[in-house]
Amino acid sequence: MHELTNNHFTTRDPGLMRLILILMVVVAFQLTSCDHVKKSDSASNTKADTLPLKAFQVNGAEQYIQSILEKGFIEEDGHKLYNPTILKEFYENRNYQPAWTDFHNIEDAFSSIYEIYDDGLEPQDYKYVELYQYYGDFKSAKELNGEKFARFDVLLSDALLTSAAHMISGKIHPQSLKSQWEIGVANYKDTYENVASMLQKSINNKKVSVEFEKIKPSHYMYNGLKKALKEFRVYESNGGWEQIPDGKTLKEGDRDPRVGALRRRLLASNEMEPYTPADSLVYDARLVVIMKMVQKKYGIEVDGNFGKGTLEALNIPVEYRIEQIKANLERGRWVLHNLENKYIAVNIPGFELYVIEDGLEVLTSPVMVGQYQTQTPIFKGTMQYLVFNPTWTVPRSLNGKYLQKLKTDLSFFDKENMEVVTYSGKIVDLETTNWKKYTNANFPFMFRQKPGKNNSLGVIKFMFPNEYSIYLHDTPSKGLFSRDIRAFSHGCIRTKEIYSLAEVLLEGNNEGWTTSKIKSEIATGETKTINLKEKVPILLLYWTAGIGFNQNFYFKTDIYNRDDALIDAINQPFEIQ
């Protein structure tokens, strides 16, 4: 079911939306072309060297442009201006003369808005059809109406500025989704000192589309997502893929009718090169190799078997995969502008940490993140210091378990190398204190685990002070790093490659901190804090689709169920509040 409402197309089918836009533009062009033929016929007796019109000649539009700007609203189009302040400055500098008279500039602006489809946004959010209809009408008109042209001119300026703002800040503000995303998005008015003069300069130089492209994120992640979006739209246009029936886990040598469906599914998404098997129903050695690559792509345990997790990933329809890519392009617009030269990035659903320097990945480490009930928040911080042989203070939310042990089994605290301390750090005597009088509500102390190999934080913690009390740390439970889904913590980030990470971060101290020296310091058993001379930004991010440095595209499990809300928001027609 599709409808045209309030000058917005609303549709569940982006491909159909694209087709409708194309058809409407073609109609506008046909009208213009017909008029051109008539003009050519009537002009057969004119000089052969008459040049075609390259710009509109408009009179009397100034007063109408000024009136629109004063109202902040184009009544005839039902359009509230998104950028009234910038537009006023822009047109005041022009003495309210129309800005969009040159055909090259107009078509450049149209191209910029139309191609935003490749960034996962809808051109009609920026009045693309209405603008092109105006353009077709003007090109076929014998005389231009100043009032009508004023509406077109301001509408096109506002549409271009709005789409540019969305390229810089995103269409959706992340905090409107009611999830913990505390990385401040760039404001395009702050990013560029004088937006009005930038727009005027691009018009003067006839480089509207060139300047528009420059404001998009140039990060490899964003460009990789755009490439993937095009590829998956091709898969969609080819009919997508069929669902593979449920069944037992397939291992090498198994013969099963579902193998044929599996082969067709992998061919449909170019995840397998065509080949002729000895037996088309056998899960052969070549399929095992292919399956391992597929499992790595989808963040599934790599065993080469075709089991439940792989089945579920491959059965997700192409239409939803496209929506996921669009959602992650939006996340890219939130964070991928002007990243620092050196930074740490943690992809929460990818369960991985990266250290990036000079555009290169210098370290990768598996991590564990918060469970669904204790989600790791998304924010940006600054790594400031490391602690060797840290103590662990139990979060108050976990006190109940330990308070019960105080009342029933004091030996537990010796076994776990734990103690009870006051908020000033004074140790409380376990034997002489009457613990029965305390509950979670009135417990005035803290539980603290002493340093040691079994400490819950391991032997190093990496501190970037924040309001969530989140940090990176080692863990004694290293066996869990072998799991494919590693959401085990209470929010903090357990990191596998602690020594390599410490060495990279301590390079800036110029104190010869090698892995060997770090281990020697830890072996003393003493708690030691080392401030970083080079403070390194750290971003805790949420990518369910993306591309690695090796240019391999991936999907990750949406462990906190955040994709659907963002997908729904992106697909809503853009309306100015």
Provide the descriptors you would attach to this structure in a database record:
Muramoyl-pentapeptide Carboxypeptidase, domain 1; 4 domains; 18 strands; single chain; alpha+beta; L,D-transpeptidase catalytic domain-like; three-stranded antiparallel β-sheet; 577 residues; disordered N terminus; 39% helix
Which descriptor suits the 3D outline?
globular
> What's the N-to-C terminus distance?
26 Å
* Strands, count: 18
- The percent of residues in helical segments reads 25-40%
Largest sheet: 8 strands, mixed, barrel
SS-based class: alpha+beta
Number of H- or I-type helical stretches: 19
Mean pLDDT, rounded to whole units?
A: 89
**Gyration radius, in Å:** 30 Å
Strand order of the largest sheet: 5-6-7-15-13-12-8-16
Low-confidence stretches: 1-12, 27-51
Fraction in beta strands: 5-15%
| Number of self-contained structural domains | 4
Characterization of this structure:
By secondary structure, this protein is of the alpha+beta class. 39% of the residues lie in helices and 15% in strands. The protein folds into four domains: 3-42 and 53-216, no CATH class; 241-316, PGBD-like superfamily/PGBD (Muramoyl-pentapeptide Carboxypeptidase, domain 1, Orthogonal Bundle); 340-390 and 454-543, Beta Barrel (L,D-transpeptidase catalytic domain-like); 395-450, no CATH class. The protein contains 19 helices and 18 strands. Strands 5-6-7-15-13-12-8-16 form an eight-stranded mixed β-barrel. Strands 9-11-10 form a three-stranded antiparallel β-sheet.
